[in-house]
Design goal:
Blueprint: H1 4-17, H2 19-23, H3 28-40, H4 44-50, H5 63-72, E1 74-75, E2 80-81, E3 84-85, H6 86-97, H7 103-106, H8 116-130, E4 134-138, E5 141-144, H9 146-154, H10 159-162, H11 166-178, H12 185-209, H13 213-226, E6 231-234, E7 245-248, E8 256-262, H14 271-280, E9 287-292, H15 298-306, E10 310-314, H16 316-325, H17 343-346
Parallel strand pairs: 8-9, 9-10
Antiparallel strand pairs: 1-2, 3-5, 4-5, 6-7, 7-8
Helix pairs in contact: 1-3, 5-6, 5-9, 6-8, 12-16, 14-15
Length: about 350
């Protein structure tokens, strides 16, 4: 049987971890008495409870804490929300609801080096979004939905209940279309890697669209250097005449490529932009690269094709593919080692 001070300590820790659940009962002393009498009476059942290992919460056990944190950012009186960044949500959930856990648990990491608790909170947030309890208003920022507000008031949400939600079922149905039927384990690994690559490329495009034009020009120049095109010189910001960079393919600058970078959030590059780019190219080169975060309309593509100069057009999707391939703006997270039988050894 645990001592009274130990009982008090555990009660305080639990009270701070789930303030809405216990405080809503109205009588803290009554809850405390029931807690101690139920948990610390020397019976076989309670002895098992006492010996239960303290552990990190499962990802689905972070549902309500996450909704509670987002609820605090909800301004009902103004009929508006204050979006919270995903990382901030993770940190607040950990500090508010799980800070009482032992330090060695809070610092546990996955094989990839990420914090296990933060990773589980992040996964819980992802599930809440899939089921419509949380909405992503822009990349990396979230608000609680009306359904999330109602669920938070109830104070409970199981994984089984979440998986019954129409939004989540629709997500599963969409995944089934991609399915893994009649595929080998290697094919499933490849499909998983393709899915990860697609997600990273989508995030790259969103990040680039949030850059200012000069940052985007620098990014394009960095990519060209990573691709082995030699040194890239950025031109003046205010008077570049339609040229954002000059690639010197050799150290003496005998072969040059002119570069134009256009960051567009909406709309496509038109023929006039291609014509202006060609007009800005001087007589010392006949090569040009035009890069954009969006795409080129049909007339712009035809203009580049018909030009006497060699003009390469790179749209947003192609740009993301190149950045991913040449590791610009991305980093290696984990290397998987797949082994197979050495046939020569067994012959």
């Amino acid at each position: 049987m645990q001592s009274v001070p130990s009982c008090i300590a555990k009660f305080i820790a639990m009270f701070h971890s789930w303030p809405g659940t216990l405080a809503s009962n109205g009588n803290i002393l009554t809850v405390y008495g029931l807690l101690c009498s139920n948990m610390y009476t020397p019976t076989e059942e309670n002895e098992e409870t006492q010996n239960e290992e303290i552990r990190l919460p499962k990802f689905f056990e972070t549902f309500i804490p996450t909704l509670s944190i987002l609820k605090a950012a909800h301004k009902a009186d103004l009929k508006a929300d204050s979006p919270m960044r995903g990382k901030e949500i993770q940190m607040r959930v950990r500090e508010t609801y799980f800070a009482h856990l032992p330090k060695e648990l809070l610092q546990q990491k996955t094989s990839a080096g990420t914090n296990i608790l933060l990773d589980r909170i992040s996964r819980g947030l992802y599930y809440l979004k899939l089921a419509g309890y949380v909405q992503r208003v822009k990349r990396g920022y979230y608000i609680i939905s009306p359904k999330g507000l109602k669920t938070n008031e109830i104070g409970t949400l199981t994984l089984k209940e979440l998986k019954k939600q129409p939004e989540f079922l629709a997500h599963l149905k969409a995944k089934e279309k991609d399915g893994f039927d009649d595929t080998t384990p290697q094919e499933r690994v490849d499909q998983g890697l393709e899915a990860i690559a697609k997600e990273v490329k989508e995030e790259l495009l969103e990040q680039m669209k949030e850059m200012n034009p000069y940052q985007f020009e620098t990014l394009v120049n960095d990519l060209l250097e990573a691709m082995g095109y030699g040194s890239v010189e950025s031109t003046s910001k205010s008077n570049d005449g339609g040229i954002d960079g000059v690639v010197n393919q050799d150290k003496l600058g005998l072969e040059k490529i002119y570069v134009q970078a256009k960051r567009y959030n909406q709309g496509k590059v038109h023929e006039t932009s291609i014509r202006d780019f060609i007009g800005a190219m001087s007589g010392d080169t006949h090569k040009g690269i035009f890069v954009t975060t969006s795409d080129f309309d049909q007339k712009a593509q035809q203009k580049a094709k018909d030009a006497h100069h060699k003009i390469i057009l790179i749209n947003g999707l192609q740009l993301c593919d190149l950045m991913y391939q040449y590791e610009v703006g991305v980093q290696k997270k984990k290397t998987l080692l797949i082994k197979s039988i050495d046939v020569d050894y067994w012959e």
